[in-house]
Amino acid sequence: MANNAKRTVIGKRQILRELKNGNVAEIFIAADAETKYITELIEAAKSHGVNYRIGSTMAQIASECGIDVPSGAIGVLKA
To answer: How far is it, in rounded angstroms, from Cα 63 to Cα 58?
Structure first.
């Protein structure tokens, strides 16, 4: 997943905002997130030409990002 040296945004709202600004390099989506949530992020990623991966769980994403609340996705920002 995301390297700690890379800047990330957590959650759909922040990812969508940064996509509009052209700042997202890649999106990691939790496989156990709600279907609608996953679909919205995939459609947004495709429309902005950004790669996405579906895999980790919401708990794994939270753990890797150092947050206490499970999250459905993170976006890795461009350098």
So the answer is: 9
